[in-house]
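User: I'm preparing a small set of examples for a lab meeting where we compare how different chains pack in three dimensions. I only have the primary sequence for this one, and I'd like the structure in token form so I can line it up with the others. Please keep the answer compact; I'll paste it straight into my notes.
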Amino acid sequence: MRAFQCSLKTSLTTGKKYMKGIHKNESIKVYFYRSRGPGGQRKNRKETAVKIVHIPTGITVRATEHRSQFQNKQLALQRLDERLKALTKVKKKRIPTRKPRYVREMEIKEKKIRKEKKQARGKITDYDNGSDNT
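Assistant: Understood. Below is the structure token output for the 134-residue chain.
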């Protein structure tokens, strides 16, 4: 597996349109390796699969779909951009709601049924001695 570390300022110009969410001063590590699966001699002989590691966050993305290293690199950069955007996206705060009345009534009804089942079990008594074995 070949790898090189670079700053986004200096290289990876092939995926510029996918690097909008990635800050210019952050570093990434790009690995090229031989992918598996169909694709013939080109895929078996060349290192077409791409793995990109975003060092500040530790996010790793891979692309092995295409026979071309160039296309896989673009796809991996696009995936990295999407993952970084998802990481910075602010989640909406959940607004707590009350349970509807019929739901609460069903819970109480089920609770009563469980209570009756437990009470029906009763205590086990030893009829020989007349004492409780609990």
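A couple of notes for your slides: The domain at 2-88 is CATH 3.30.160.20 (Double Stranded RNA Binding Domain). Residues 116 and 122 are 10 Å apart (CA to CA).

User: Perfect, thanks.
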